[in-house]
Amino acid sequence: MTSSDKTLESLLELGNPAVRRTRAEHIEHAMRVTLMLMDADAVAALTPANRRGKRLALHAGSTAAAMLPPPPQGSEVVRSLSECCEPLVVPDLSADVRLAAGDSCPGVEAGPAMFIPLRQRDPIPGYIAVYRGRGRAPFTLSDSRLILLLSAYLSTTLDGLRLLSGMERLAVTDDLTEVYNSRFLIAALGREIRRAGRFGQELSIVRIGVDNLKGYVDQCGDLRGSLLLREVAALLAQQIRSFDLVARYEGDEFMLLLPQTGRDGAVGAAERMRAAVEQHAFPGVEAGAVTVSMGVASFPNDGADSAALIATSERAVRKAQQGGKNCVEALAAPAPRKDNGVWPAAKLPAGGSSRKSS
Predict the structure, then answer these.
(1) Under 8 Å between Cβ of 283 and 304
(2) Rg over CA atoms, the chain
(3) pLDDT at site 306
(4) pLDDT of 288-313, one tens digit each?
(5) What percentage of the chain has pLDDT greater than the value 70?
(6) DSSP code string of 66-130
(7) Which of 321, 342, 345 shows the shortest CA–CA distance to 333?
(8) Which of 347, 293, 335, 345 is nearest to 316 (CA)?
(9) Is the pLDDT of residue 348 over 50?
């Protein structure tokens, strides 16, 4: 394979959309390609996200990139690239004290160096730096053009990852409250029910209705009402475990998904959240003016699938609202039997509650 063929193959592989890599994996792969193409002793990468001075360095023969400490006076190269956005090719890095102080590469005796701007949607560029030891041949114009092409591939790839991450986040997040949306909740609930059924575990959901929201909006306005829902969502999110889930279900209702949690545990968790909302002073009103009513449903007692659990939680939260609000309700259900490895659905007679007396 000729040098040109190897270069083309490397660049095509670098930009191959079928290869799924993380941001860090893309950067390290680009560094390895640069080492090979430039016959360099080391390569460093400073991305715009790390513009405070942290750099990744990969030496020839190393198995993994290492983090370099930030230069004490900042990066003179970044300042230069910000002004001209042109490759900076240095015949001997040791001859330029300003560059060598902050942008040299530990482990490589300063010699020829080349710094190529790495731009994303950021006013301050990062760079790809290529180093050869003292006494080796300086980098050529052809070298700088090749690495410019590589940096363009990498910049485009990193921007694409950022946009994809943002789109994926928007797809599962409620715009107003910034917690999960109902579509993601339903999918997650189905997965957790299957897992709980397979391992004979319990799980619970808690449906949450915000009490007196209409009165709050009449008093404080629509914008305040929207901000209230966001604040309630934040309060709920602060109370859950790392593997629990809070989502906006519909309108002024939220739902919690609590894996590996039975009825009693879910009622206790819901009661703590109810108290947290009751004790919180929302803008324009005193603490206690805004409360929540909560309905608990647990697998397998209250249903063997998503639809049954959600229906039970709806009946429970309606009972809480009709019974005075600001309380937690859980409908009683008979103990389930497990036949042939499948949890059966259960009948749903009315039952107990955890009520805040007024």
Answers:
(1) no
(2) 29
(3) 94
(4) 999 999 999 999 999 999 999 999 99
(5) 79
(6) EEEPPPTT--HHHHHHHHH-S-EEES-GGG-HHHHHHH--TTS-S--EEEEEE-SSSSS-EEEEE
(7) 345
(8) 293
(9) no
